[in-house]
Specification:
globular; single chain; 3% helix; Neuraminidase; five-stranded antiparallel sheet
Length: 314
Amino acid sequence: MGSRLLAEGIGFTEGPLWTDDGRLLVVAMSRGLVVEIDLEGGVVDGTEVGGGPNGLAEGPDGMVWVAQNGGTMRPSRSPRPAGPGLQRLGQGEVHDVPVPGALAPNDLVTGPDGRLWFTDPGLADDVGRLCAHDPVDGTTSVLLDGLVFPNGLAFGPEGDVLHLADTAGGVVTRHRWTGERLVPDGPPAVLPAGGPDGLAVDADGRLHAAAPAADAVFVFAPDGRLEDEIDLGGPAFPTNLCFAGPGLDVLVVTAARGGRVLVVDRPAAAPQRPLTRVAHGWRQRSAPTVSSAAARSAIRSSGSSSPTENRRCP
């Protein structure tokens, strides 16, 4: 099983997203950019969001949302100021969305309730949390708190099971959404090496976990058994992954070592049409990036949780 290089030298890569209108986006955290990548290879364009963009998700209305750590995780080259919170891309602009008490938002996904669910681990000594932001009324609620370092998150095919990366513990925990709160849902998936970062779940419920310290992607069966290990062919520091392409059958991995974006060749028997979001029935519309020659130039210039009652953020 090999990999194909789509882009390299674009900064600390994270947060890949395949949009409904057929674009592959990743973040360059160390450069404060959201970058569009051609699925055949090469950089298409970039949007400067500032700070430290960490994760991406497409909202129910087709807008692209950014989990913004505010440059707290690593220095950013971007001169654009951006504090910890969320951002929305659309209409040729970057909209900063304040989140009360935000520490350092990390990854996000559209939840079954139409809200933007995101992890907020903070720094080493912070107590992390899982939150949900309502894009309609602008409120943010805490779903889980008391977390050591919550990281990647992904919903299962039916939209009622949440997989949550516990990087410090080296496991991915399972939680069931009742419609009002999250409750534990069976034993965690235990990584054989390293700690989990970004996650993706395919249409058959297989969990894919990027493990930076192990230079691998681990694949777990729906019952939590380790099923496969995807070797990335050398030092890669894989941070996150998504399924892309018209059939959602192309596995894209962001490899921060070398600022790379990779496509992993999967066997013919690999599951097809993996799902990481839940369809909500709203009509999707495109979320254009900001076309910026300056941004393009910057890209290429250098090489144990406690459930809460959906508590509102202060």
